[in-house]
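Task: complex structure prediction.
Instruction: return structure tokens for all chains below.
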Amino acid sequence: MNSRTWAPYGFVLPFILSFLIFFAYPLFRAGMMSFQQVLPGDVQFVGLEHYSKLWNADFRAALWNSTRYTFWTLLLLVPVPMVLAVLLNSSRMMARNLFRSALFIPALTSVVVAGVVFRLIFGELDGALMNSILSVFGIPSQQWLYSSSLAMVALVVLAGWRWMGINMLYFLSALQSIPKDLYEAADIDGAGVMRKFTSITVPMLKPITIYVITITLYGGYAMFTESYMLWAGKPSPQNIGLTMVGYIYQQGFQYFNLGFGAAIGITLLVITLLISMLQLTVLGMFRKED
Amino acid sequence: METRKNKINTASLLLLVLFAALAVLMLFPLYALILASLKPAAELFRYGLNVRWDWALMSLDNYKTIFAGSGAAGHYFTWYKNSLVITALFTVLSLLFSSMVGYGLGVYRFRGQTLIFTLVLVVMMIPMEIIILPLYELTIKLKLINTVWGVILPFVVAPLPIFFFRQFAQGLPKDFMDAGRIDGCAESGIFFRIMVPLMAPAYGAIAILQAMNSWNNFLWPLIVLRTTEQFTLPIGLASFVSPLGNHYEELISGAVLAIVPILILFLFFQRYFISGLTVGGVKG
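Output:
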């Protein structure tokens, strides 16, 4: 790495190697596998057979659950942390660091731990936490993990609990880089709190907002462990907790149907790419960076 | 003046109440978890997770079972050790590689730079879960299945840390590089002797991020690790609830102990974590 011309290539070499071996090749292989019947020592080309079988009830359940989950997490985990960060950053806020840490701590726990806790909180017993709260309001106990919409509530609450703090931290770090004089100028013009929020804060937070939306989309469609833990590794009743990645896992590692699993993976890839492109075009990320 | 001061106090108080309520809500599941770890499993089966506070029931028995290593908890500390080894190796290697790549992309101008950075962004935007099946096949071919390296290698050069280091490296003083060159220092020497110390805040932030990811990682270790002795902590904990039987008492006390190392790491490094995020401040 002694020559200045070659040094940069030395520095980026780990990425190039890792990209080729652990990303590009497997992605290429996933494409190939999706047209094959893969059995130990016996690989057969089956054309579009896997794709033609894809549009079945399980796949529709997985796609519907993942999409719904992504939608609700986007709604919960972008605007709310943004507003919380603005409030927390306000000069009138006391004990800022304490609250910042308190809200972040859930993000430190593993999804396995969080999944166990929420599985028990949303238990079907009368004494379980959610049901005992409902009983205070005179609402009868619910079987949370046996109905599609109630199970989605449990999944979204779990996501909100784990990610609220970390998304808030992202917004908080971006808030700190907004120049103070913008607000001072607005004060002189007599702008109110709301006006300053919509005309200065929100536009200045746009880059970090795009980033948070992107990771939330990614996390939404990649969700697996939460539902795996809520139903303790067993299939959820009527597939109410089946996600796209859960479906890949089930086909690949439980039914050893690698080719079909790869076809699900490729479909998920196309879906996430389309959504990312759409989002980035709408939010104008493709405009040239300085 | 008087009214303005009052207004500030009312607003502060409202904010305080709001955030205190929120903090209670967020910490509540952890409180319930710790409370549950002190109760016998029969209590959990009867009532689920709740906040019944009954001194007659509370004991450290679940923790004793874990430490005695009897029954289902027989491998608990093996998993703990496995997780510590994997997290330490993963974090150190990830810091080394991602800082190298991020630095290379951030401070030099070279052919192919834009392409490589675009590829970093592409990897960042595609969920790796999509390729777990071919990755599993590859891991078998490379004879890395059921090994520590099988867990670590595919994800150790991660795009997000590279991205953060690149942002950080762009702000490093270029004069230091020139000064180093004049003194006859090699490019690698400039990196390791001059730039690495300057990137300390970024290392702090990424260390927490990567240690957290590795310590809590579930799907990939679940696929790669086949034998009970090789399990990491999350896989081991998940195996406490299985179609063959549930061991909630070991699971819950084990889960509490599993949070400890990452909590300690966070409390020690949180200053770096937050400042590191700020400098990494994502640009659109």
